[in-house]
Amino acid sequence: MIPVRPIYLCFALCLILLACLPVCADDATSEETGLKIAQDAHAREKGFSNFTAQQTMVLRNKHGQESQRQLRVKVLEVPEDGDKSLFVFDQPRDVKGTALLIHAHRESADDQWLYLPALKRVKRISSSNQSGSFMGSEFAYEDLTPQAVEKFTYRYLRDEACGDLTCTVTERFSVDKKSGYRRQVVWRDKDELRVWKVEYYDRKNSHLKTLTLENYAQYLARYWRAGQMTMVNHLTGKSTVLTWTDFEFQTDLDDRDFTRTGLRRVR
Amino acid sequence: MLRRISLYLGAVWILSLFFVAGAGAEIGIDGDFSGRVNVESRWFPQAGAFSGQGSHAIGFVVLPKLYLADAEGRSFTLSPFFRYDNADPRRTHADLREAYFLLFGEIGDGEWELRVGIDQVFWGVTESQHLVDIVNQIDLVEHPNGETKLGQPMVNITWSSDWGVVEFFVLPYHRARTFPGKSGRLRLPLVVEDEDVEYESEAKDWHLDFAARYSQSFGALDVGLSVFKGTSREPFLMPSANSSGAPVLVQHYGQIRQFGLDAQLTVGSWLFKLEAIQRAGARNLLGMEEDYVASVFGGEYTFYSVFGSAVDLSLLGEWNYDGRGRNATPSRSPNTLENDFFFATRLAFNDVQSTEIVASILGDVDRATHALSIGLDRRISDQLSLDIEAIHLLSIDQADIHYDTRRDSFIDLSLIYNF
Q1: How is domain A43-265 classified at the CATH fold level?
Q2: Which pLDDT tens digit goes with each residue over A18-57?
């Protein structure tokens, strides 16, 4: 065995470090860039105060059979914490009047309550069901509820053309172990940071779903909202088209509309 | 009695419709009409313990709901209920489930809410029984599990803010529990008289009852403290004779005071639940006044997306305790929940049809009373849904008051049209 002098060992280590430096540095930059994009996009969302809208979901299986969901959505911005949202179901008729209240949190698990009108019961439910299907659709809860910047780590991948626009392509990795995804790839246009496409990769890193967003409209000359969101499941061939209508921003909603007592009053 | 209620319901109904059609549009009233109609068939594979009891019951339910609100959100809700049952005339019944005005507004940082009329209130967190839930009477002919309630006349004021929610109830009128008739299944050896109800209070069913509850969420913990003072919702059944001299059971409602506690801790996929009451002034199974403590605690755990599928699997376990032991009054037919366990599993398929299967067993630790229940819910179309339920009474202890329902296992099929 050839004796290895410590000095050589040190030298070898330095060489390895040097060789890796550009890559590591590049990595750090791509992470920073990715985070920066997410933060900028979030900053553009700030100050909307609240909004209400209608959602129509058309669920389609691989045989083309359709079924429809209709719900009303109310979202309240909570500075320094996650938003509060309220979903009220109108269709299918057997769940009419059922309502879901979510208090999202940046640092801790979200709080969720479900109102069952037939029993007049407000039920606190677990928020661990992030990856579960929302109303049998291809959207999971985590795809629909507002996601705080802190709930992911990011990596900038590249810029590329998307339609007439130029998009930044970023990867994001959920910090939450309950997430059903290993990673998501997000396309945002460079001008307005609107999301145009998201690819979802499951825990085994296979391409599970793709979300495409269209019909963007701007509200209060600031906030962009997609009018249509299409989620395609590549594994099952099923898809869900979510149409948003009747957006109203800065209505007279406040905290009181997002409480357990408010939930009981929901129609 | 029934005819009178029906006439009254009809009148209110027609008046409301006029109100919507005429005045509504002009003064900016927003209306919504919804509800459900279901046809139901209940089949009892075994012959009943008493002559005259059928093996098959068919019927239907009508439960419409009218909601009117003005621009400020002040609203009126009306929801009459009617069931027809071909086997038991007592199960053919009408009720006003809801008929109330709702007002609310701001007060400081919080808000107030006022409900006046007939409404339903749910308190509590557990699944095997609802100990603290005391505002409404049980509509027992609907289902032996006691989950369905009669409308309760009330004035309810709620004040909520960051420090919690305080609800206060004035309950001016008492509703007697519904019981199966002579030809009905799931009944006691003697028929419970429905015309003649006895009260401890001289004011009878017009005794002024009070209830209050404070509730608050402390992060993952939801806690409720409640108190009730007034006419018991649970009758003591006194052996007696009716006008023609036949032996019957007469409902006797005493004056009670109850303190209640309900709590739920929600941690990850776990729900930990507790309900406890302390009740004074109630009669035990022997007809003697005995103050007591009863509780139910347990938990629920859900495995989400099992084996990579969309299916959620929940496991529930609860233990029921009643300090009166063998002298406890029966709380959920056929069990007297004095030392009883409850295990259940729920499969939510999360499919387009929202298919759900729930299986549960309620068993006595000391006695040979065990009941199994399996239910399937599935949506057929946007408006139609199907509900199948099988209650299998594995065994009923001879010492249990429900011994004579031992042959009343049943399969219930319900086709529901929601509009």
Answers
A1: outer membrane lipoprotein receptor (LolB), chain A (2.50.20)
A2: 554 444 445 568 999 999 999 999 999 899 999 999 999 9
Report pLDDT digits (tens) over B185-242. 999 999 999 888 999 999 999 999 999 999 999 999 999 999 999 999 999 999 999 8
pLDDT of residue B392: 96
User: Using CA atoms in the order B42, B44, B49, B53, what is the torsion angle rounded to 10 degrees?
Assistant: 40
ipTM above 0.90, yes or no: yes
More confident residue, A107 or B344: B344
The three-point CA angle B130-B389-B87 to 5° equals: 95
Q: For chain B, positions 269-288, list CB contacts with chain A under 8 A.
A: 269-271
CATH superfamily, domain B2-418, is Porin (2.40.160.10)
When scoring B75, B148, B222, B266 by the number of chain A Cβ atoms within 10 A, the one with the most, hence best to mutate, is B266
Nearest to A57 by CA among A249, A244, A258: A244
Domain ranges of chain A: 43-265
Q: CA A227, CA A48: separation in Å to the nearest integer?
A: 17
Tokens of A183: 């990673």
CA–CA separation, A111 vs A259, rounded Å? 11
The answer to whether A209 and A221 have CB atoms below 8 angstroms apart is no
Query: Any idea of the CA torsion for A256, A259, A261, A267, to the nearest 10 degrees?
Result: 80
d(CA A229, CA A55): 10
**A78 close contact with B: CB closer than 8 A:** no
